[in-house]
Amino acid sequence: MVVSDKFYAIVAGVGPGTGRAVAIRFSEDYPVVLLSRSSGSYKDVVAEINKGGRKAIGITADATDEAALKSAFETIKKELPGFKLAATIYNVRPNSRPSRKPFLELTSEDLDVSLKGNIHGLFNFGQSVVPLLLEAVESSPHPPTLLVTGATASIRGSKLWSVIAAGKSGQRILAQSLAREFGPQGVHVAHAIIDGGIDVPDASHYPTNEGTPENRISPYAIAESYWFLHTQHKSAFTQEIDLRPFIEKF
Amino acid sequence: MVVSDKFYAIVAGVGPGTGRAVAIRFSEDYPVVLLSRSSGSYKDVVAEINKGGRKAIGITADATDEAALKSAFETIKKELPGFKLAATIYNVRPNSRPSRKPFLELTSEDLDVSLKGNIHGLFNFGQSVVPLLLEAVESSPHPPTLLVTGATASIRGSKLWSVIAAGKSGQRILAQSLAREFGPQGVHVAHAIIDGGIDVPDASHYPTNEGTPENRISPYAIAESYWFLHTQHKSAFTQEIDLRPFIEKF
Amino acid sequence: MVVSDKFYAIVAGVGPGTGRAVAIRFSEDYPVVLLSRSSGSYKDVVAEINKGGRKAIGITADATDEAALKSAFETIKKELPGFKLAATIYNVRPNSRPSRKPFLELTSEDLDVSLKGNIHGLFNFGQSVVPLLLEAVESSPHPPTLLVTGATASIRGSKLWSVIAAGKSGQRILAQSLAREFGPQGVHVAHAIIDGGIDVPDASHYPTNEGTPENRISPYAIAESYWFLHTQHKSAFTQEIDLRPFIEKF
Amino acid sequence: MVVSDKFYAIVAGVGPGTGRAVAIRFSEDYPVVLLSRSSGSYKDVVAEINKGGRKAIGITADATDEAALKSAFETIKKELPGFKLAATIYNVRPNSRPSRKPFLELTSEDLDVSLKGNIHGLFNFGQSVVPLLLEAVESSPHPPTLLVTGATASIRGSKLWSVIAAGKSGQRILAQSLAREFGPQGVHVAHAIIDGGIDVPDASHYPTNEGTPENRISPYAIAESYWFLHTQHKSAFTQEIDLRPFIEKF
């Protein structure tokens, strides 16, 4: 398939693992916008994609900041005039990773960080992108999609994971609620439970699952799953998928 | 059983429904502290319990406000010197009930209200009461208990319920995480999924389930279930219970 | 409360643990019928209850055998003329405990045993007792009840537990389906997930949770929970409850 | 990718909907064996695939009959000498569809039919294919796979669906248990919750989702999802996926 000149994708939250791999995969079919809190996170990925003859744009914006997000979409309008939004991935990791620690040692700030990045962020991002996805329903090659990166903590409040689990589970149910509201309008909202540690492959390598350690998830395999979810026919939408290494206990 | 002169209970979040009924039920065995954002919510219940020869204390405090909560526990220390904390019920309803409305009509404030009341509130309350409950493990008549009032939205992101469900599900998983951390230390953390509308009986009536409309839950029946959870033997703790009217579809 | 002269209870599946404890607990309020595949399982419990001035009847019948079950209810009609059925507990353990073993070492018979005891048994038992429970809806002191003893395997297919989990999960969903069909008609169907090993106390002792090892569930505590479920007001039915030792990992 | 000359796939349970579509999809990469209780179910599909230059073999066998299954695999050995088993789909619908009806109107035979087709069938099929899948782990192009077709009743005991739900939920948990046992050995076991009615397209048409009614699932879309599951990298196995029409309420 040739790269569409009409539709684009956004990946919010880009690091060397899932974000980079997903951006690379979606760039095979769409120009890709990478949103991140710091340009350091996306600079190399943007360069890597553009060097390969595809198109990527990096924008510095915090998804939990409504104004920053608004300004990001104005930039996109200028950079990709006439393009519609076909695919969005919310892959933001909270600002400073909340510690996995005993409940009584946590601070209110630890909780804030988790809720902000996981729930407020998806809320703001969703309010920005859903109207744009709805505009693309009739014309986009695949049903316009909002994908959310979840984790084991999205469905389980393990010991010592209290604030992380509170944020991830709230995020998951928010995505579920959006799926029920916007699915019938043609927008596909899906949530992926990533159950395992993600391998960060040497970025200079061509995208491949080769060499993934047995106890790690290849980010390219996640990216393939996200692409699969995006391209599902509207008669068979998946709302939730789990992904884990074959040797993972669960 | 005579009212203990050594242990007390706290109900955070008191209205004419569940909060009042639970306070009345627990006052049969313990002096009860009622926490609420406004004295109007607890005044009548406190009077009703004290008039009946039992003991209740009302304290105005917002569970989401760390300082207010700290000051509340200082008041309790003075009012109930030498008492240990045996039972706590987190029954707080978010500040102004977030609207059940289309996602794109919600504001960031609607989300804040839900997360604050449901998650931050339980987090702060938990950090205040868990150390006190741990102190009571060896001596209290029943395992020290933290009960949390959940709802259908705690396990399901229905259409139009996005911010409420995000808050309730995060709250539920937080409680689950606390159960896994503090259960083995002897503190019983349980979550109740209240699946249905609650009847608000005429407060002048003696506590009874009589007259509950078929499609409503009697708050006295909830209170009985909470008391049952509190008195469970430590060899058979329940972590989650659902409660619904017999005719409720689910 | 005096023993009712109008209503009785049935416990199907009686051993020295849960079955015995539940029979003893329910005999405080009802004459109790104990069903078991062999008289050796109930003889001592029946004697123990009758010696204490309460009433128990033992009947040898396999719940998975329709004819045996039919004949058992004819016996009950003669032994307890005019009595209505208020409470039933399905606590049957499959005929010979299916081995917890590698899937490829299991035989078709292992599967049969699990499905027969767990699903066919509850199906037959349900078809026998539900019509009787429906007859008691208007008059019984508490909503007529069908309680089912589940296990961790009821909600989880662990490695090596395949046939046990297939039977228990099918049983759980069957109970859930009955709850949805007969709840609105006034019959309370509830399922208990017993998550842990059950202590078998010295039967000569008075019913008490004392001395339960930390990693075991007291059968008397299970019995208390079953009694609680039976006595719930119809405005607040519980469909599922979990019970585990406070130190159990989950 | 060229059709492999080394590996084959089996679809157990073939009708004009899911079974046919999955067989067609997998025949793009493997010779496909179609198992069905009657040759009428697979004859046309086998002809359709062979006519298209791919290879399909139909075998009449009831998956719940151990001897028939054994004989089927002997036939396969002769027909596809030297081939290894790479992909298996358990898509069997119980013998005569158990009625969706009131519990008290069901017979023991209704239950038998559901348990036999759903649980016994998967058990027998699993015992036959898992050893063959294990043999293919090192050499097959994708991780050897066992896919199971589930339904809404696999996770929910709705009113009137008791025996169907008992069978489907037992089947689901059995598949889950196999996933936990054989995943670490390299065999991918996944369960698909098909939540909606399946469209049966005009079989003379080329496989396409075109024309699927809005409230139906395209069987070709299911087939695409099954193929996706089969080709997942072993670092990112999905155990469970849900599939429903975009307008379906859930």
UniProtKB/TrEMBL annotation, chains A, B, C, D:
Report the coiled-coil segments: none
> Which Pfam families does its entry note?
adh_short
Q: Which InterPro entries match?
A: NAD(P)-bd_dom_sf, SDR_fam
Q: Which SUPFAM superfamilies match?
A: NAD(P)-binding Rossmann-fold domains
Name under which the protein is recorded = Short chain dehydrogenase
Q: Which organism is it from?
A: Hyaloscypha variabilis (strain UAMH 11265 / GT02V1 / F) (Meliniomyces variabilis)
